[in-house]
């Protein structure tokens, strides 16, 4: 039932947008300033979530690439706790 309600809301908003466009055209013809209505296909919160997921994915893939190609190790070893404790020990020892 929630899908029906969401579809009705979308249809209502589309109808409202169409009505607003008609009003804008009428105002434009009468010489008043036109208003710009913007419809976003991807909401702002979803854009931020997508960016956060992509950043995490890039960090994971970069660590795997760096450890396997540049460090001559297995790519899956980057997920071992012992690998990270060894790296932290190397950093702190200097």
From TrEMBL:
<keyword id="KW-0472">Membrane</keyword>
<keyword id="KW-0240">DNA-directed RNA polymerase</keyword>
<feature type="compositionally biased region" description="Polar residues">
    <location>
        <begin position="1"/>
        <end position="10"/>
    </location>
</feature>
<dbReference type="InterPro" id="IPR024596">
    <property type="entry name" value="RNApol_su_b/EpuA"/>
</dbReference>
<keyword id="KW-0804">Transcription</keyword>
<feature type="transmembrane region" description="Helical">
    <location>
        <begin position="44"/>
        <end position="67"/>
    </location>
</feature>
<dbReference type="Pfam" id="PF11772">
    <property type="entry name" value="EpuA"/>
</dbReference>
<protein>
    <submittedName>
        <fullName>DNA-directed RNA polymerase subunit beta</fullName>
    </submittedName>
</protein>
<keyword id="KW-1133">Transmembrane helix</keyword>
<feature type="compositionally biased region" description="Basic and acidic residues">
    <location>
        <begin position="11"/>
        <end position="31"/>
    </location>
</feature>
<dbReference type="GO" id="GO:0000428">
    <property type="term" value="C:DNA-directed RNA polymerase complex"/>
</dbReference>
<feature type="region of interest" description="Disordered">
    <location>
        <begin position="1"/>
        <end position="31"/>
    </location>
</feature>
<keyword id="KW-0812">Transmembrane</keyword>
